[in-house]
Amino acid sequence: MSAALTLGALAQRFDLTLRGDAGRVIAGVGTLAAGEPGQIGFLANPRYRRELADTRLGAVILSAADADACPVDCLIARNPYAGFARIAALFEPSRAMTPGIHPSAVVAAGADIHPQAAIGALCSIEAGARIEAGAEIGPGCVIGPDCVVGAGTRLVARVTLVTRVTLGRRVLVHPGAVLGADGFGLAFDDGRWLKVPQLGGVRIGDDCEIGANTTIDRGALGDTVLEEDVRLDNQIQIGHNVRIGAHTAMAGCCAVAGSARIGRHCLIAGGVGVAGHLEIGDRVTVQAMSLVSRSLAGPGEYASGLPAADSRSWRRTVARLRRLDAGARRAHPSSEDSRE
Question: Which of 110, 119, 175, 183 could cross-link to 217 by cystine, CB 3.0-4.6 Å?
Fold first, then answer.
C-alpha cells in the first residue's frame, strides 16, 4: 500500500467503531510496547493489558470492554485480532507476479501450463502436470506427474509435489514442503519388511496454507485430504489417508499417523501426536505436547502433556508416581507382577 490511511477510512472499510480523531493518519503497524505515533496496534490478549496505559501508538484496535482504558484513539472490534489482521494486510508490500516461464525452468512437453501462470527459475515440471491461471511456482520447485496446481495458488520456493497431488485455488505452500511422497506402508513377512505400494494421491482444498518443511504423504489406495481453509504450520507430518476437516489449524511439529480423521474447526497445538486409525470430532482443541491415542468425539478441549516444572519439583513428582505404582502392585498383584 503506497498511501497512508486515516482512522475514519479504516473504521468505515472494516465496519469498526471509531473512538477518537477520524482524520488521524495511520502509516504502519506496531506493538503496544514499542509502537510509534503514526502506527496502529491491537490488544487481544489480557496479558498485554498492562502495556496499554503507556503505549505511544497513534491508535489501538481493541474490544469494547477495554476501550475506556485506552489513552489514545481506538477502533473497537468484536474480534480485535481479526481486525488487526485485516488492517495489517494493507501495509504488507504487494508482490507483482509476472506470467511466463523462466529460461532455466525445465518443462516437459506433456505439461499443461496456462499462459497467465508464472514458473520460476530452476523449476522442473513433468509431463501430465497442469498449472492453472494465476498460479505462481517459485524457484527450485518440482511438479511431478499428474499434479494440478490450482488458480491463484503460490508455491514459494523448493516445494516438491511428487505425484498425484491436486492443489485447489489460492493455496499457499511455503519453502521445503513435500506433498505426495510415499506413505509409510509396510507389511512384515518372513522376518523382512515388504513395501506396500502407495497408489493414492493428495487433495488440498481451496485457501489452505502449508508451512515450511511440512510433509503430506499420498494415500495407499484413496487420497490424503485437506478440506478447504486448513492451516498447517511448519514441520508437520501428515500420514497417508489422513483426512483433515475444513477450517482446522495445526501448530508446528505435530504428527498425524495414517488413516486418522480430524474434524472441522479443530485447533491442534504444537507438538501433538495423533495415533492412526482414530477420529477427532469437530471443534476439538488439543493442547500442546499431547498424545491423542483414542478417538475424541468433541467438541471439547483435551490435554495430556505435563507442563514444565523446576527439576527438583519434577524429581519429587516422579518419585511419587513410582510409589503409587508400587502401592498399586501390592494391592492388586497380577501373575505378571509376581514373576517380576
Answer: 183
Alpha-carbon dihedral sign for residues 314, 317, 323, 325: negative
| Span between the terminal Cα atoms of the chain, in Å | 72
Which residues are bridge partners to 187 per DSSP? 194
Tell me which residue of 126, 91, 84, 85 sits closest to 105, measured CA to CA.
126
Beta strands per DSSP E along 79-127? 100-101, 106-107, 112-113, 118-119, 124-125
CA distance 148 to 138: 15
What does the chain come to in residues? Answer: 340
Q: Give the rounded distance of the alpha carbon of 44 from its chain centre.
A: 20
For the chain, the structural domain boundaries read 5-91, 100-302
What letter does residue 90 receive in the DSSP assignment?
A: G
CATH number of 100-302: 2.160.10.10
pTM over 0.85: yes
Spot the catalytic one: 240, 247, 265, 277.
Answer: 240
What's the one-letter identity of residue 211? G
Catalytic-residue membership of 240: yes
pLDDT tens over the chain, length 340 residues:
445 799 999 999 999 999 999 999 999 999 999 999 999 999 999 999 999 999 999 999 999 999 999 999 999 999 999 999 999 999 988 888 899 999 999 999 999 999 999 999 999 999 999 999 999 999 999 999 999 999 999 999 999 999 999 999 999 999 999 999 999 999 999 999 999 999 999 999 999 999 999 999 999 999 999 999 999 999 999 999 999 999 999 999 999 999 999 999 999 999 999 999 999 999 999 999 999 999 999 799 999 988 888 999 999 988 998 888 888 888 877 645 544 4
Return the CATH class of domain 5-91: alpha beta
